[in-house]
């Protein structure tokens, strides 16, 4: 009995020690993952994972980066990668990156020795990475539609709980909630003008017909999106003849894709000449907020930009530059709004045919 009691005591002690060093989290796919209580090294793979870590100001934990995040020294399309470039460019490469499919380099991942991997891969890719490396992999994938929807809130809070940045996460989410409330209050007297966003970026660049139903920056200010379709949400290719029927009062185009639109204009100038917004000079830029998932910073800025054009009196006390500076500083530690404009991600008017 003494011997058995000793064995039981040793077993209880081992279980207690394990409980003190290991905890369980449930990821965005409903998977239960055991992770260390102390997280000192992390990796982020897939579309948008590193962005969340950057917003949480936990990039010092990074043990490696994907190849696709090294290209943004002079390109602000990917907000976090532009800001962090000099800090992360020399880290070991642990995957190709570029989407939600499995693109990791398993041997490089193992050499990086992370305590946990945050994955925005699909569920299948997330589980494959866990099998290949036997390292805890936590799925934090969020949708790249809407206006910072519930999936982003959940993923931000999940990663924050793993790396000990819960207060930072709540600060960011409270700010987003405040922006949503502010935009709704300013735009409560809904504009009757119809709007259309074209030449959007979504899984690549698109021409004039590339648009969104339920476009986040529009819904935030109750804008009447001509391209809204109750049967779909997010990106789709609109029929150009239908755009003529809609004949929106204001058109927004991604300045990064104007090379495509200008080629289209050269082929079909008569089509564009029929659009009232083109004739009236009511075509404006709308820098894409989607690049390797959602740049929440640009999404918020775009909401204020849309509101300022649709309801100028309600936004008269706001300078877009000041609001953009505030947003960028909060989420990424510094503002680079003036740099965005110089590098082509500007907010202003577009003259088609000029």
Describe the structure.
Strands 10-8-12-13 form a four-stranded parallel β-sheet, with no helix packed on it. With 354 residues, the chain is of the alpha/beta class. It has 15 helices and 13 strands. The chain is globular, with a radius of gyration of 23 Å. A hairpin with a 5-residue loop joins β1 (22-26) and β2. α13 (296-310) packs antiparallel against α14 (320-332). It starts with a helix and ends in a 12-residue tail after the last helix. The model is unreliable at 10-19 (pLDDT under 50).
Gross geometry: globular
* Helix proportion: 40-55%
Distance between the termini: 93 Å
- The succession of helices and strands, N to C, reads HEEEHEHEHEHEHHEEHEEHEHHHEHHH
What is the averaged pLDDT score?
93
What class, by secondary structure content?
Answer: alpha/beta
Radius of gyration: 23 Å
Number of helices: 15
> Percent of residues in beta strands?
5-15%
Which residue ranges are poorly predicted, with pLDDT under 50 across at least 5 consecutive positions?
10-19
Strand order of the largest sheet: 10-8-12-13
> Based on DSSP secondary structure assignment, what is the total number of beta strands?
13
Biggest β-sheet, characterized?
4 strands, parallel
């Amino acid at each position: 009995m003494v011997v058995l009691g000793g064995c039981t005591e040793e077993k209880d002690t081992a279980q207690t020690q394990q409980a003190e060093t290991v905890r369980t989290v449930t990821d965005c796919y409903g998977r239960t993952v055991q992770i260390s209580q102390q997280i000192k090294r992390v990796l982020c793979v897939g579309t948008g994972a590193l962005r969340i870590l950057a917003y949480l100001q936990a990039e010092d934990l990074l043990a490696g980066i994907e190849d696709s995040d090294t290209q943004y020294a002079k390109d602000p399309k990917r907000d976090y990668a532009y800001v962090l470039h000099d800090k992360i460019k020399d880290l070991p490469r642990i995957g190709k990156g570029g989407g939600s499919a499995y693109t990791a380099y398993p041997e490089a991942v193992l050499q990086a020795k992370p305590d946990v991997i945050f994955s925005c891969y699909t569920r299948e890719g997330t589980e494959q990475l866990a099998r290949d490396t036997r390292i805890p992999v936590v799925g934090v994938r969020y949708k790249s539609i809407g206006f910072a929807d519930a999936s982003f809130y959940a993923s931000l809070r999940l990663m924050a709980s793993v790396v000990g940045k819960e207060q930072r996460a709540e600060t960011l989410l409270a700010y987003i909630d405040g922006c949503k409330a502010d935009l709704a209050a300013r735009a409560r007297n809904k504009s009757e003008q119809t709007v259309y966003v074209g030449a959007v970026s979504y899984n690549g660049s698109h021409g004039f017909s590339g648009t969104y139903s339920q476009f986040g920056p529009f819904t935030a200010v109750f804008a009447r999106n001509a391209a809204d379709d109750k049967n779909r949400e997010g990106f789709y290719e609109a029929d150009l003849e239908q755009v003529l029927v809609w004949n929106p009062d204001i058109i927004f185009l991604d300045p990064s894709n104007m090379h495509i639109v200008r080629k289209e204009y050269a082929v079909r100038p008569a089509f564009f000449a029929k659009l009232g917004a083109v004739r009236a000079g009511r075509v404006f830029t709308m820098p894409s907020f989607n690049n390797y998932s959602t740049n929440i910073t640009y999404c918020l800025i775009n909401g204020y930009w849309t509101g300022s054009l649709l309801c100028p009196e309600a936004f008269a006390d706001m300078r877009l530059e000041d609001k953009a500076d505030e947003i960028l500083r909060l989420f990424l530690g510094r503002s680079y709004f003036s740099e965005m404009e110089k590098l082509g991600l500007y907010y202003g008017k577009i003259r088609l045919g000029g």
